[in-house]
Fold this protein.
Amino acid sequence: MRDLIICCLLLCAAAVPAGAQTQTVQQRLPVCLACHGADGQSQTAGVPSLGAQQSFYTTVQLLMFRERMRVAEPMNEMAKGLSDDDLRSFADIIAKLLAPQPPAGPVDDARMARARALVEQNRCNFCHTPTFAGQDNVPRIADQREEYLVKALRGYKDNSRHGYDATMADVVAPITDAQILDLAYYIARLK
Ligand code: HEC
Ligand code: HEC
């Protein structure tokens, strides 16, 4: 009898919470990737690529969507009801998707050079790392979609996007809109 109770306790602990959550995440994942791109690269304007994103950054952002600290359609609805474990599971899966690739086609060298100077001046490559792969709570931005990068940077600047802390608001404060366009052009085309 005692063995049976222990066995049941073990089963309940192992199967019920962990099993139910894994299934939820696995069931919901195709919906996420229909928008964000199954191979980590988004084909949809306004929807960011998620491939190889830093797991900790993703966890924090999903938490912020859930708590409406970051307000953006449709993500507040998408994150509703997810447990903290769900957020971490999504983040771990997303981190293992392939990193996005730059678009094909000719590149405006003068623009790239202008942006490189801005990157040095504003130390983007210090926090986001020299390859822009990010680290911990600092996101990968290398080869992210250009129009999403513009939206993100404008959002920090006009305060419509609140970061987990004020870091990016401080970074973009002295940056002009023309510079934002050059920075996004460059980061979206990193080789
Ligand atoms: C209908 C399309 C759609 C679906 C479905 C969707 N997303 Fe999103 N997601 C978006 C858009 C659009 C944004 C960008 C919001 C913004 O402009 O800030 C986004 C942003 C994100 C971000 C933030 C990325 C970053 O770089 O900051 C994460 C993480 C994310 N989604 C994960 C998920 C997960 C996990 C799911 C499934 C539970 C999901 N998304 C479902 C459209 C979608
Ligand atoms: C002091 C460190 C630091 C510096 C310098 C910095 N960043 Fe960031 N960046 C961050 C952090 C932390 C976040 C996540 C903020 C949040 O929670 O939204 C971020 C977020 C971003 C995002 C949003 C990415 C996404 O997926 O939504 C973009 C784009 C970005 N940074 C671009 C830049 C550019 C361009 C520069 C240089 C002009 C720069 N950053 C400089 C730390 C930094």
In short: The CA atoms of residues 115 and 182 lie 5 Å apart. Residues 48, 122-124, 126-128, 137-139, 141, 149, 152-153, 163-164, 167-168, 171, 183 surround heme C (ligand 2) (CB under 6 Å).
